[in-house]
Here is the input.
Amino acid sequence: MTTGESQPAPTRADAHTTGGPGERVAGDTPVHRAEDPASLLVDRACCPLCGSDERAAWRVVHAFRDIPVVRCGRDGCGMMFSSRVAGPEAQHLYYVENFGSTFHQRGQRINASVNLRALARMPVLVTRGGGGVVRVLDVGTGYGYLPWLLGRRGGGGGGLRCVGVEVSSQEVRFARERLGVEVREGLMGTAGLEPGSFDVGACFEVIEHVDRPVEFARELAGFVRPGGWVLVNTDNFGAPAVRRMGPEYPKWIPHSHINHFDPGTLAECLRRAGLRVEGLWSYTNWETRLRIARMLGRSPRGARECFDLRGTLRTEMRRGLALYRLRLALSVAWVGLTLRRHRVIEGQPDAPEAGSMMFMLARRPEGHGV
Here is the structure.
């Protein structure tokens, strides 16, 4: 792993947005160019948490154009999710062949530093018996910044070893060639990983993207040793800040963020995957606080004004991220000041006031399969 003391700020060239011979330019696929991208969507067959196909029990939370977000009311399930999703071919074009931009790369660099700061508050990177190497699996590693940062912390293979898994070919290439980290290309089940070989299995802002989150969490746990940790980071759509912003909350991205968890539904997801929830941490980032301050004196706009599928697809892979270094410094300092731990009672989080970004820590039981 790369262990240098610094890494240049990401640039547009780093993000591979210009393309090479035979390579698509980011944001230039049939999905992004479609005149009617809604025609690429299919109705969700069932609730991604409880599995209910009783659509009459689904209640609209936000009526975004083309992709309403609904809540499952079957037996108190409460899971929120996008009622329409991209079909398999469109998902492959979107994530595997063409995912990557300056915005995503710079954002991931910031997020990796924030996540490392949060990890320092948790017991997951402590070596067993005071020695040995902690093996970390980072699924959906993106450009590979978290494995890179963990490699620096571990002294180039001393106390920590992190292996990434990523489906985006552009991001995998950057992680390998520019950062020198170990990233397996593809899905967990096809990446050549040995079951039960990791101390920690982690996914940061990934579970909201997958069709079947319970199966995803169960598969992730299968690569963790009995007694090891599974860490899931995702948005908390039950947070007071999210409720205040309504459909204007910027993480309502219903074409790609298709599962919308709160602490209760995320804990239930991990329980169904055979895991025991042991910790919850959360915070609300400074940019969300600033957005709320700008909304003082007015109500949120309507959902149909807040998301346009065609316009989003045309621009999302061509965006930049201004004031990158300032955002990086502020974000790391902010999480250090505001991250708080919440009570978990018999596997159930007690966190009605949790922040808009959450980290849920669960353990794979000793001596049991998942």
User: Anything to note?
Assistant: The first helix runs from residue 30 to 33. Residues 30-40+89-363 form a domain with the Rossmann fold fold (CATH 3.40.50.150).
